[in-house]
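From the shared-data thread, chain only:
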Amino acid sequence: MADQLRYPFTAPDALDPPAEWAELRADRPAAPVTLPSGDTATLVTRYADVRTVLADPRFSRVGATGEGARVGEQESGGVFSSDMSTVLPQSGEGHLRWRRLLNRWFTAKRMAALRPGIEAMADQLLDELVERGAPGDLKAGFAFPLPVRVICTMLGVPDSDRDRFAHWSDTLLSMTRYTQAEIASAQAEFAEYMAFHVAAKRADPGDDLIGELITATAAEGQPMSDAQLVATAQGLLVAGHETTANMIAKMVAMLLADREGWERLVAEPALVRPAVEEALRLDPNPGFGMVRYLDAELAVAGTVLPAGTTVVCSMASANRDDEAFERAGEMDLGRTPNPHLSFGAGAHSCLGQALARTELQAALTALLRRLPGLRLAVPVSGLRRVEGLLVGGLRELPVAW
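Structure, as tokens:
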């Protein structure tokens, strides 16, 4: 293996992990890598080390200059230099208050109340998919529109704008797909759209998430600014559909690649919950990983890292660490406990993980019930990865039934 690896890695096919993960866990758990921008970082790949970095407040989400990582073609750009990374508080009491406000919308009680509506949306989308006939693209016809409809309902924005959301999301998550000029233009459009939405909610708050944030923070005497509300709405819209849509498609592809696993779930639907967790753990293509910064010298995985180091945490590699999981490279649909790191760890763990789990479980349940004979319409080797974005996924998922 070369001394300086280029990151992110690639794999032989869309459902295989990169070979570098296992090699680095064994020999160089804190390895120097070159990013698409040409900058260098330290990649952390073992479970214990990734968990430590993500949970340790000495590893910050923002560097000493307040800037994000250079992960794309240009110095910054996309999500790392958007208002989401500068307007919203990233640490301290401000960050805790922001999370507390949003956590009210992602409680178990809220998710239980949302589930019947999500299941109804899933059934409607499957009706439309079946009506169009096989073969079909499960990502375009089901995996993508389902979480879009859910998050748009929560935010009170029309899901008829979903194509615009998809473009804006892709530019925010770009590593190499878009130029800086294209990213800046899309961010400006996205911000203008959300500013109009926030202004409408200030006039008539309603009972959606943004309306409640306006009402609740005003009642507490600490109203959120328009800029914070816009950034919050942008972040939730991007995170609330892009990653979940990709995960639904990848989860189904992983299960259909092994007919034995799919048939077991058809016969034992009670396994849906642990099966979703196992799919999250085994995801071979989750994307870039989580970035952290060092403002002071610290040791990671036995390697002393100087101040100013950019650390990239590969949760996907950590999730396949044999030191943390028995038979880590195998899919065990009944695996429990399953303390995977797919949603991160510590103070910055994924805020919407309860929603993502609810959507994934509802999607898989609906597919098993409605289309038990679902199968891939192409060989596994014919599945194509999403390229050039911070999130990983499949371009399409051709299926038949």
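The first strand starts at residue 5 and ends at 6.
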